[in-house]
Amino acid sequence: MENRTERRIDMRSASFPARLWGHFKTITLHKLRVTRLCFKMGLIKQGLLHDLSKYSPIEFWSGVRYFQGYRSPIDAEKEAKGYSEGWLHHKGHNKHHWEYWIDRNKQCAGLFCVEMPKRYVAEMVCDRIAACQTYQKEKYTDASAIEYFQRGSDRQFMHPETAALLQTYLEWVRDDGIDAAFKKIKQDWRRTKSN
Predict the structure, then answer these.
(1) Which tens digit of pLDDT belongs to each residue from 85-125?
(2) Which domain of life is it from (predicted)?
């Protein structure tokens, strides 16, 4: 825990060029990891296009400002401001986030989650694995993504079918390893015509 605190202090006092370079390296490493994982799963176009919005001005500069190196700058921005402009933009432009699939309907008088197509759930698996690899570094295991999912509150708000499918896919990664799990996930999303 002491190292995390030291890193937090170091990054908050880091120079602008250090935060700029640190953020650029982090998002680029993450993107390359997701692209590689998407390719492995047969999601070529999604892998190439994944997270390009992170290089847009609104997402990139808020990421630089709140960069800490050991977690997403989105969390730091939310703590500082109560919300994240970068995240609002990001989730509205990337279909692999369940928040993209929230809609409003007059008939049910409120917001509701739409079930995500399986190909985007598969990309979300790649995204979560790559995020754990990027931030956990040598502490990453094939159980990291499911453990993060189980600790979080996301599944409370996701469409129930999407949450169940994501959990299943992440459990396959934990139990079978990435290569075997990805074969099963690829077969599963390809079976569904509405992807």
Answers:
(1) 999 999 999 999 999 999 887 777 788 889 999 999 999 99
(2) Bacteria
